[in-house]
From TrEMBL, chains A, B:
Gene3D superfamilies: 3.30.420.40, Winged helix-like DNA-binding domain superfamily/Winged helix DNA-binding domain. This is ROK family protein. It comes from Nocardioides marmotae. InterPro entries: ATPase_NBD, ROK, WH-like_DNA-bd_sf, WH_DNA-bd_sf. It comes from the Bacteria. Belongs to the ROK (NagC/XylR) family. It holds the Pfam family ROK. The lineage of its organism: Bacteria, Bacillati, Actinomycetota, Actinomycetes, Propionibacteriales.
Length: 408, 408
C-alpha cells in the first residue's frame, strides 16, 4: 500500500511508516503482542492498529494469531500479532581480540545460527580479519530460507568508532588505526548490504537496556572487560555519544600515577589495574591465555587473596564512574562478570568507600542479563534499527536468497 | 483567547501553548525577531504565526515593532516582534561559598538589578543564609514596575541537588546536608512563588549553552571552580542528569592516591589538586582569601612556576573528562578561568599528553562567554523554563506588585 495508491501526502506517509516501525519494535521486543496491547502502547485507535497490522502482514514480517472474526459471548477476544515464521534477519558480528563470533539473528532477537573462528593474536591485518568474518557470514546464512530478507550487518569493535561513518579510529588490542572495516567486510563478501559499526561497550549497553538486565532502566552503564576496559553509557534512555561518538573511554581514567605503562602511552590508567593483563599477572595466568581471561577466571581455584587488590581497584574505579555519571545500574560485562563473582565483597566495599553518598544510594551492580551475548545482540540491534525507522524502505532494499548469492 | 472561546480540544490547546512557549523562547534568545524568521524557525504558516504573536501581545510579554498594515512596492516588510517594555521577570540567586548574588533578570536574559551580600564562612545556618537571600531579593524587586509579573526564583547551589524535589543533599563548602533551601527562602520571604534549585556547574553549562560560549554546540562541559570543582555536562543538546540529578561530580575522580585528604573522606581526589585550597597553598595565599581565589589569581604577580604543577594537574584531569565524555567544548568557569589565563600552556600540553587522540582532536577549551555571570544567568534560565513550557499557565500564577507585597 504505497502513498500514491492511498493518495496520502508525504507527511502522512512518513507518520504511517513511523507507526509501522514502532509497532514492529513492540513485536520485536515482546515476540507476541495482542492488538489490545498495541492499541494501549501506541495510543492509536483500533481501526488504525488493524490497518497497520495488515500492512506488516503484507510486508511479510508478522503473522496474525487469532482470526479477527472469532467472537465469544463475553466480547471479542483481541487478535494477536507475532513475528513471521520466515521473517527478516540480520548478521551480528562480535569482533573480539582473539576470535570473531558471527550470528544470524532473527527479528525478535533470537540467535538462529552462530559461527566462531580465531583471529590472529594482535588482530592481524584488517583484510585478513575481514576475510575471516566474511567466511563466517557465509556459514551462518547458508541455512537461511531463500525467501528470508537480510536487512544488514552490525559489527562490534573493541575500540573507538567514529559515529559519522563507522571508521575504526583505534582498536588498540587489534593494533588497528583508521581502518574502514565495514568496507573491507563488504569487499570480502562481494554483496552490498547496509553495515553498521559500533564500540563493544556501547553495544553491550544497548542490548542490556533493550533486552537484558537494564530493561526499564534509563540510566545505565555497561562496562566491557575485553582485554581492555570501556563503558557504554545510557542516560535518560539515550546513548551518551559525545561529539564524535567516542564517549565512555573510562579505561583511561587516571588511577595510579606511579603505576604501569598503558598502551595509550600514559602511566597508571584504570585499565592498567583492572585490564586483562593486570589480572593475568595477579593470578599467574600465562600471557597466551589473557584473551580468554573470562574462562580462566571461571575455572580459577587459586587463593582468593591474589585477586583482592584487583577487586578493590575495580570498586574504586566504579566509584569514579558513579560520581561522574550517576547511573542507576552498572552491568559488569566480559571477564569483569567472572571477576566480580570472585571478589564481590572487595568490589562492593571499595565502591561504597569512594562513591559520594547521594549517587551511591541508588546504584546497583549487576551481571549481564544476556550472559556473554550482550555485545553480539547489541550488534544485531543496530543492524535492525533501519527496520524500525522505516520498515517499507528497509525491506525494499533488503537482500533475498543471500545463501545462493554468497555461494555463487 | 482560551480553549473554550475558540472551541478547541484539549490537545489542540496544548499544541497551541507549546507553540506560544517556543515562540517566546525564540524572542527570549534573540531579543527581537521578524515574523519571517519565526515562520522559518517554527515551520508554521504565516497566519498561525500572526495569531500566536497576537496572543503573546495580549499576554503582555511581547510587542510588535512594525504595523502589519505597512506595505512597500517590493513586497510587504515582515513585522517584527520584540520583548515587552514591562515584561515578566525572574529572580536568580547564585549562592557562593562566601557570598550570595541575587539578580532581577528580565525575559531576554538582561540583569536589571543586582545585589550581593557576604554569607558566613562555612555557610552558616541555612536559615540565616535564607534570610540573607530573602533580604537581597527584597532589594532587587523594590524598583520593579508594579505591573511586571514575577515568574519564579532560580537558585544555584555549590553542591548536589536532588532533581525530584530540589533538596540540597550535600553542599560540602557550606557544610550543609539534606537542606530544603527553597522552602527556607520562601519562608523568609513570606510569599509563594515557584522556586527551582540546581547545581552551580549544571547552571553554568545551561547558560553557556544557551547564551554564552557554547551556543550551537550540543556537547559541552562547564567546569565550575568554586572552592570545589564540579562539571555540568550537556550531551546531544540535553543535560546529563543521571538517575538522581547528581551526574558530573568530577572533582572526586581519583587522581593522586598518595595525595591529600579530600573533604569527601577519600585521598587524592582531583579536587585536592586543582581545588581552591590546593591552589592557595601553591601560591602562598592566606586561607582567608581562598573563597575569592579568582580575584587573587587575577592579581597574581608571583612566579609562574608556582602554578605549573597545578596547570598540569588541571590538564590531566581535563584529559580524563575528555576521554569519558567526548565533549566538543570545555568551558572553564569560576577561578579556573583565572588559572587558565596564567598557565594555559601547561594545561593545553597536559591535556594533549593524556587524552586519547580521537576525542582530543575535536575538543576546544574556552573561557565563559558570560564572564562571571554564567551560573547566575543559568539560575535565571531554570526560573524562566515554565514560561517556555506553557506561557498561559506560568503567567496565570505569576505574582504582580511584588515590591509592594514584600515591603508589606
Amino acid at each position: 500500500m504505497t502513498a500514491q495508491r492511498r493518495g496520502l501526502g508525504t507527511n502522512q506517509e512518513a507518520v504511517r511508516r513511523h507507526n509501522l516501525g514502532t509497532m514492529l519494535r513492540h513485536v520485536h521486543g515482546a515476540g507476541q503482542v495482542s492488538r489490545a496491547q498495541l492499541t494501549a502502547l501506541m495510543g492509536l485507535n483500533r481501526s488504525t492498529i488493524a490497518d497497520l497490522v495488515l500492512e506488516l502482514v503484507s510486508l511479510g514480517v508478522v503473522e496474525q494469531t487469532v482470526p479477527t472474526a472469532a467472537r465469544s459471548g463475553a466480547g471479542r477476544p483481541s487478535a494477536g500479532v507475532r513475528l513471521a515464521e520466515v521473517g527478516p534477519y540480520v548478521i551480528a558480528v562480535d569482533l573480539g581480540v582473539d576470535r570473531a563470533v558471527v550470528a544470524r539473528v532473527a527479528l525478535g532477537g533470537e540467535v538462529v545460527e552462530r559461527a566462531t573462528a580465531p583471529i590472529p593474536s594482535g588482530g592481524g591485518e584488517a583484510w585478513q580479519v575481514g576475510s575471516t568474518v566474511a567466511g563466517l557470514i557465509r556459514r551462518v546464512v547458508e541455512g537461511a530460507p531463500a525467501a528470508a530478507p537480510l536487512l544488514g550487518v552490525g559489527i562490534s569493535v573493541p575500540g573507538l568508532v567514529r559515529r559519522s561513518d563507522g571508521l575504526v579510529r583505534l582498536a588498540p588490542n587489534l593494533e588497528w588505526q583508521d581502518v574502514s572495516f565495514g568496507s573491507i567486510v563488504l569487499a570480502a563478501l562481494g554483496v552490498d548490504v547496509p553495515v553498521q559499526l559500533a564500540n563493544d561497550a556501547d553495544l553491550g549497553a544497548l542490548a542490556e537496556h533493550r533486552r537484558g538486565a537494564g530493561v526499564g532502566i534509563d540510566d545505565l552503564i555497561y562496562i566491557s572487560g575485553n582485554v581492555g576496559v570501556g563503558a557504554g553509557v545510557i542516560t535518560g534512555g539515550v546513548r551518551l555519544e559525545g561529539a564524535g561518538g567516542y564517549a565512555g573511554e573510562v579505561g583511561h581514567l587516571p588511577f595510579a600515577p606511579e603505576g604501569r605503562l598503558c598502551h595509550c602511552g600514559n602511566v597508571g590508567c584504570w585499565e592498567t589495574e583492572v585490564g586483562a593483563h593486570a589480572i593475568a599477572e595477579a593470578i599467574g595466568c600465562p600471557e597466551s591465555e589473557v584473551v580468554t581471561l573470562g574462562d580462566v577466571l571461571d575455572a580459577y581455584a587459586g587463593p582468593p587473596s591474589a585477586l583482592r587488590a584487583t577487586g578493590t581497584a575495580l570498586g574504586h574505579g566504579l566509584a569514579a564512574i558513579v560520581n561522574a555519571f550517576n547511573p542507576r545500574l552498572v552491568v559488569l560485562g566480559g571477564y569483569l562478570s567472572s571477576l566480580y563473582a570472585l571478589v564481590r565483597r572487595e568490589v562492593d566495599d571499595a565502591l561504597a568507600e569512594r562513591a559520594l553518598p547521594a549517587p551511591l544510594e541508588s546504584v546497583t551492580l549487576a551481571l549481564p542479563g544476556l550472559g556473554s551475548d550482550s555485545v553480539l545482540l547489541g550488534a544485531a540491534e543496530i543492524a535492525l534499527e533501519p527496520l524500525f525507522a522505516d520498515p517499507v524502505a528497509a525491506l525494499g532494499t533488503a537482500l533475498v536468497d543471500v545463501g545462493g548469492r554468497l555461494a555463487g
